[in-house]
UniProtKB/TrEMBL annotation:
Source domain of life: Bacteria
The EC number(s) this enzyme carries: 3.6.4.-
Gene3D superfamilies documented for this protein: 1.10.8.60, P-loop containing nucleotide triphosphate hydrolases, Winged helix-like DNA-binding domain superfamily/Winged helix DNA-binding domain
Record family assignment: Belongs to the RuvB family.
This protein's UniProt keywords: ATP-binding, Cytoplasm, DNA damage, DNA recombination, DNA repair, DNA-binding, Helicase, Hydrolase, Nucleotide-binding
SMART domains, per database record: AAA
Record localization: Cytoplasm
Residues the record lists as binding ATP: 30-31, 72, 75-77, 138-140, 181, 191, 228
GO terms of biological process kind: DNA recombination; DNA repair
Name recorded for this polypeptide: Holliday junction branch migration complex subunit RuvB
GO molecular function terms noted in the UniProt entry: ATP binding; ATP hydrolysis activity; four-way junction DNA binding; four-way junction helicase activity
Residue span(s) of domain AAA+ ATPase: 61-194
Amino acid sequence: MTTVNWDDESDDRIVAAAADGEDTAVEAALRPKDLGEFVGQEKVRQQLDLVLKAARQRGATADHVLLSGAPGLGKTTLSMIIAAEMGAPIRITSGPAIQHAGDLAAILSSLQEGEVLFLDEIHRMSRPAEEMLYMAMEDFRVDVIVGKGPGATAIPLELPPFTLVGATTRAGLLPPPLRDRFGFTGHMEFYAPEELERVIHRSARLLDVEIDTAGAAEIAGRSRGTPRIANRLLRRVRDYAQVKADGVITREVAGTALQVYEVDARGLDRLDRAVLEALLKLFGGGPVGLSTLAVAVGEERETVEEVAEPFLVREGLLARTPRGRVATPAAWVHLGLVPPHQQGSGSSGQQGLFGA
Ligand SMILES: Nc1ncnc2c1ncn2[C@@H]1O[C@H](COP(=O)(O)OP(=O)(O)OP(=O)(O)O)[C@@H](O)[C@H]1O
Ligand SMILES: [Mg+2]
């Protein structure tokens, strides 16, 4: 059995939600520039529209905004839209980049009035920086500490009003005092297939690729509710269409291309399917312990647990129970297999129920 290293999931998996190098390069071109162009997330979009419009009417700086949600759902995109809608410049940094309170003080003290400060991965900021941020968000003030030890003095520094846009994939990790200082929290949901179809049509237009309705639907269904994955699959299907077909993406072209890349009709890739197949074929659908399952697919426990399982659970194909991993009826249907307790049980209708 070959062992693939999935540790850096962005490098290996075509269905990874995290950005890889190529994504980063093309994403800028595919990013919607205003709220009107931003597909889906109706609730967040409506609420944010009100927040921004009201601030604009008052001639004030918008309230601080927290965006939470899984990778690739549009947090960075939305932060840039917020700045664009407010006609404000944007400064981009991230939690891991701010290790010392001094780093943050330097950024904050150089902000212009009304500027948007985008703080990606805000849950990964250091503690002292976080505490400085509390005061900056609430009172637009920071205390800059000068000197060391008993002689150190805090010099208060007034900041111009600014809008902090924080993004996090792990809202639960944010300390409550930080969460409470945001005037608006937008929780980004996974996208419905119809929404992803719109994303795909839009991206195809920008990439100058011809695609029909069924072709877009085929890609959307395999994109795991995530625009970044939809855009990535679109690029791979485009390659295939260009080399093997006449450049036009139809349902057939998309389906065949994604088969080549081993992304199945529900967006499962090779690893996902290996886990599911082992669970069904070797363990009769479980329950089976995580370690045993991992050994069976020749992967590390962590890979199975953190890379494959979250999507399988989300799709309702696998359940984590106290007794171990269990396949759901949908898993049997998806792999076109018949659960053992239904095999040879006399009724030939069973096969039809669970077939294909
Ligand atoms: N609502 C949307 N409409 C159209 N395209 C979108 C939408 N949301 C995201 N995208 C596309 O998906 C790509 C990824 O989005 P973005 O970088 O904003 O995700 P993110 O939530 O910041 O991800 P991460 O957590 O990895 O930072 C962007 O290039 C953008 O083109
Ligand atoms: Mg981002």
